[in-house]
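Teaching note: in complex prediction, the entire set of molecules is handled at once rather than each chain in isolation. The prompt given to students was simply: 'Predict the structure of this complex.' The entities are:
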Amino acid sequence: MNQFPCPGCGTTIHVDVQRLLAGVAFACSGCAAEVALAPASVPTVHRAVDKLDEQRSRDGERGAMSGMK
Amino acid sequence: MPDNTPELVSLAEQFTGLPMSDLIGAPLLAAAEANAMMAATQTKSLLDIAFSYNKAENTYTPVLIKMTLTRSAIVPPAAANPPTTPPTTPSPTVVRFQTTFDLPLLTILPLNSLAVDDVNVSFDMEVKSSYSDKINQETMAAFSTESKFDTKFGFGLFSATVMGSVSYDSSNSSSRDTYYEKSNSAQYKVRVHAGQLALPQGVNTIIQAFANSISPITLPTPAP
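The expected output is the structure of the full assembly:
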């Protein structure tokens, strides 16, 4: 889980990127404001998450190969 | 009598001269280098994913995404026009409005922080030498030589004959077993474990700085 301060009251809001991409809104516990990912930014976040997953799988393969040495 | 038995292996000599600094230090250095390589790879991917590079200025600018913020606001009532008699106080209304704000992509990405967190070095060495000398000697003595004799003697009318035989056997056997063994063995194990660690403090500071500079929201202007 990642976090950032609520723009309204400054309370920390914890978010999950996969659920943001699924359209889930996260509520601030301080002022009940809801934050969600704007539709225009969904492709940007999707690309970033795919690149991260690709890097994780490459690290996993590299680790498995070095373990086989 | 000179001692011709072979000398046992000197254990002190076998253990001195071992490159202990290499045996212990080399795996730790290798783990530190692996951590440095992983950190460099992750930093590069972080810059590629969450920042855009300006070649002309040689600077990195964070990628910003749009987030929607939905909250309620109390809108003060507008004054009655024309004023009523008697004057009435209209109730404020609660309006749910949505606005957008910019957020750095870095703040919501689940960043990788893979590193070696445990190195276990195990070195076992065994030196063995043994010597045994078994001597088995048997001596059997038996009389086997045979000789016969007879003696006849007489005196006057009396005569006597003495006969006899003597035999002597002798045999010797001996065997000797000598056993000498010398061996040494060593076992060297290095176990390394890597896993997701907490983000470095520097990255957390940058994320916090970006998150704190979220652009302010704009409230809707109340109706006249």
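Point out the following to students. Chain B touches chain A through 33 residues (CB under 8 Å). The radius of gyration of chain B is 52 Å.
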